[in-house]
Protein: ABC transporter permease
Organism: Vibrio navarrensis
Amino acid sequence: MIDLLLKRLLQAGFVAWAVGTITFVMMKLLPGDMAYRIAASRYGYDFVSQEAAQAVSVELGLGRSAFEQYVAWLWELLHLNLGHSLVSEEAVNELLWHHLGYSLILAIAALALSLFIAFPVGVYCGRYPGGRVDKMVLSLSVLLRSAPVFVVGLGLIILFALQLGWLPVLGFGRPEHVVLPSLALALTLTALSNRMIKNEAYLVLRSAYYRFARYKGLDEVRAYERHARLNIALPLIAFIGVQAVGLIEGIVMIESLFAWPGIGHALSHAIFARDIPVIQGAALVMGLLFVAINTAVDLAQYMLDPRIRQEKVV
């Protein structure tokens, strides 16, 4: 386990450097006057001028070479300082910390909801493969998987907010505000995970050890609880690490669509304003979240699956 944690720690350091460097280069390659965009974000496009843009350039040191700016950012990163926003002048550490909580609420709600839907549906389809329910779920899964997450979100807005009037679209002050954005994310995650669970359930429920449990006299419910449920769930735990990429990507689009005040929403605004420290910081946090999720998945597998612990001992 110590080796695993050290490996993930080194991976986190590499991800921090790689994500920050790639983001810095991409923003520098974008066309347009960065100082003018930053000034426009500060004062508004109706009041910005070339003089204001020049003043911003001098104030922020944008006239320095790209290499000098990159070295300065790297030095600050080594001191765990992500700098200050070029627009609001707020410390990026504090800004992202404020937004991180909202993103975690959304991610945890979406992941929990997707598991709540995918597991029983997948097990049922694995128990009765090729049936009417299995074919219907397969069709819905293909549809949801092929549609971008923001399209799924728009469909939910039209149905539950505009047509039925059951749920709000914007806001974050009450529990019902998280329902639509988390449901949009959950449906896209469920589209793939329920198929994986269906395949695992099909194999486990037809395995020799499960059939032997039934031959011993255990009824279907007790045989499932003792010999099938955990064996079906273990591959799902590993699959959560694979889905982390889609979850983080979906958060950026869903937060922008629903004006949810998370890191993805802050990232989209920072890209438009060319606020490089915020962009680098947000991308860095998302990369580290990916590493953290995979670390948690590895630890969960290590604790829940005795076969992995035996392999480590051997």
Observations:
- The chain has 13 helices and no strands.
- The mean pLDDT is 81.
- The radius of gyration is 24 Å.
- Residues 16-78 form one domain.
